[in-house]
# Entry
Amino acid sequence: MDDFIRAGLEKHLNFKPQRSNGGVHSFFMNMMEKSLISVVMEKTNGNQSLAAQILGINRNTLRKKISGYDIKAEKEKGKSAIMDS
# Structure
């Protein structure tokens, strides 16, 4: 997994460290968090309580992040909200 993340970062980081304007850490952390929440919300079929439990955060915190990242949190009818193992 580390190699995958490193390859992605190297691909998207096209700057010289001495010329960076800063903010790289928060930019990538926000990207990772948005992707993580999106995947967990999909796997839990939009079940925010279950997603918050899996992520280890409060449900209200999750709701705030879903809203802030503009993540679609819709439930699909007829699908289970249990993550595959």
The chain has a mean pLDDT of 83. Residues 29-71 form a domain with the Arc Repressor Mutant, subunit A fold (CATH 1.10.10.60). DSSP finds four helices and no strands in the chain. The radius of gyration is 16 Å.
